[in-house]
Amino acid sequence: MENVVVTGGDPRAAADRVGSTPTAPTAGAPASAAVTGADAAAGLIVASAGGDDLVAPESRRRRGLFGADRATPYLLIAPAVVALLALLGYPLYRVVVLSFQAMGHRQLIRGEDPAWVGFANYTRIFQDSVFWSVVVRTVAFTAVAVVLSVLLGLAVALLMRRVARPVRTAMVVAMMLAWAMPGLVSSQVFLWLVDANFGVVNWMIDQIPGVDFHNHSWFADPLQGWIVITAVVVWGALPFLAITLFAGMSQVPKELSEAATVDGANPWQVFCAVTLPILRPLLGIVTTLSIIWDFQVFTQIWVLRNGRPEDEFQTLSIHSFITAFGQSKYSLGSAVAVVTVLLMLGVMIFYVRQMFKIGEQD
Amino acid sequence: MRRKVAIAAVLAATLFGAAACGGDDKGGETTKNPLDGTGTTLKVWLMVDAQSGWQNVVDDATARYKAATGGDVKVEYQQWSTVLTNLDTALAGSDVPDVVELGNTQMSKYVFDGAFAELDKTKFENSANWLTGLSGACDFEGKQYCAPYYAGARVLIYRTDLFEKSGLKPPTTYDELLAAAAKLKADNAGDKNFAAFYMPGAYWYAAMSWVYNEGGAIAKNEGGKWTGTLSSPEAQAGLTKWADLVKNYSKGDVTKDEADQDAVFAQGHAAMLYGNGWELGAVQQQRKDPNDPNSPMVDTKVKGKVAAVALPGATAGKGIPSFLGGSDLAITEKSKQKELAQEWLKYFTDSTANKGLIAKGALPNATNLMDEVVATKPDNAAAANAAKSSWFVPVAPHWADVEQQGVLVQMLRDIVTGKATIADATKAADDKITAALNQG
């Protein structure tokens, strides 16, 4: 939000400079922020609309100098686009093509051209009850994991605002370390922690009098297994969420919450009425990102189930991987992957829209 | 202009020269002995077991091959967990290994899909006596596509000190085994961790032995159509006995497989274990740092307190049928030096190499060499005997899919956790097995 305020001030100054009539709103000091944020943004639009005519001659001159001014932005973005197309576009294209073929083990190792089978792979997975149970499981896990990680991230961020500086530094350092740990490594450590024979978690719970957790298997009961998996995933997501939301909260001007407190609002009301509305765009983005990440969770489950997840621990990405690489049904696995991508697309559109909205505000 | 002509001449000369070279090569190949390996290098993929267990056997076979052909050999060691992915990747390209080791249950799929070249069985020593459990997977439409490498059979590993303390002798019948387990459980009730018989719930190689012991089977083939047969009364009877053993006498994570059972047994809280012959050594000595293959071996708590016998089965005097695990070696269809590869394979699978393997605790690839085991490695005699009564997974092209889908593991887990009755769990597994084995 600080950005908005600052840029909201800039065009005004620019408008003043070029001597146009002051169309900018007579907002107070930039520091009064958020409430006037919308006005400032309006000012920005007005100012830039007015400015267009004024800067036009200059830009026309520049075009004359280089001739290809219109192409310049495209040239500048070209390397990134080429890299993206090569690294993301081509594999995606291959997956889509594969999903309409019958690529199996034989075709792969003998270099034979796979036959085209149209939508056969798709009809096969849509008629497969296992596939649908995997979809439901994936959606349910995503919902639980996202809600938990965003709420906990918000809670940790709020805590960071209230603690003393050294404590906050310690928290940030600890979270950065957790964040820096690759998922493969942390999952392996968690696997050892919950090991039935040697794990320290069983040992600790066993210390409680009257509780027998000796040789307790955490993955015999799917619910308990999913609790462990969710804990590992949420643990891994917390640092990013907490630090991002903490940064977002530091944009909330103290004056506003102070004013609300003076007006008799309790901390909960201040949070709901002042902090939350300002955080909303950011919350929207981190939630969308979390959905995307949790929807395609793979590493944690793969490691925790020793590379062979049982039926009740399979999510879409794992189901796709096992179908393609475990059973060498590359086309069927590709079809599952394409459906996964399509399901994600709905979420992604929301994410991209949010990004554009923020871009417009800037 | 003259320069252009000169360039053209040089170009032409280069092209013709190259063509001439190619021609020379071709002519050379037809005229020269195909077994002259001078200047060639064979690329061989072996599993890490060879590296940690019998490097000397590999080196010796390679030395004999070099002396005979003059060719070089480069051995690359693979991990079990990633070998199939690596092999698929390599086979999809052109830079393929010439010789590949695969587990005998993994072989069928590759043989069926045409990944490997046909071998001349008559050129291999002991090929008439090859263990069928190993060579069965190599046999497709009457042709031989791989050669047996080594085998392993499972035995009962037990704690001699605990048996002595409880006044027990090694069991010779299944009832004696159960009686011993009950006595050991009662005598060691003070140890919360104690398992009279450590049996992980996902250890399907073991559970299937109980199935075959009662006369059951995983699947049967009638007129080319496969049917899962785990819900047959015999198979269910076997699984019932196995599940009772797990529930009454094992302690530990029922969802675990046998991967770390040696480490668990070495902690000293278990009296009996069903494992490969070589696991008798593995429970007594382990690497100080399990992640470092070069770290020194250290004695475990059970060092010198264990012995192995055949696990008694349904018939008195005969052990429970053991899964005959092991490895086969094949030459890739894409290999450019198949004759040389077969030559190396001959040295690596002959009697000399097998004697080296026997000395390291593995079982040889032919029945006529089993007596050698009994004579020179009494510790491994139980395993050699167990290998004589063995079972094997259905030799179907799509068997690997059943393993990859974890069908049997899922069934066993559902049984031992009580999630499904044995009847329901076996029925579900049969449906999956039938579907997987008959797919086009």
Automatic annotation (TrEMBL), chain A:
The keyword Transmembrane helix applies. It is found in: Cell membrane. Its main location: membrane. It comes from the Bacteria. Gene3D superfamilies: MetI-like. Residues 1-30 are annotated as: Disordered. The keyword Cell membrane applies. This is Sugar ABC transporter permease. Residues 135-351 form the ABC transmembrane type-1 domain. It is a multi-pass membrane protein. Belongs to the binding-protein-dependent transport system permease family. CDD domains: TM_PBP2. Keywords: Cell membrane, Membrane, Transmembrane, Transmembrane helix, Transport. The chain crosses the membrane at residues 71-93, 139-160, 172-194, 226-249, 270-293, 330-352.
UniProtKB/TrEMBL annotation, chain B:
Residues 1-20 form the signal peptide. Keywords: Signal, Transport. Pfam families: SBP_bac_1. It comes from the Bacteria. The keyword Membrane does not apply. The keyword Transport applies. PANTHER family: MALTOSE-BINDING PERIPLASMIC PROTEIN, MALTOSE_MALTODEXTRIN-BINDING PERIPLASMIC PROTEIN. Belongs to the bacterial solute-binding protein 1 family. This is Sugar ABC transporter substrate-binding protein. It comes from Luedemannella helvata.
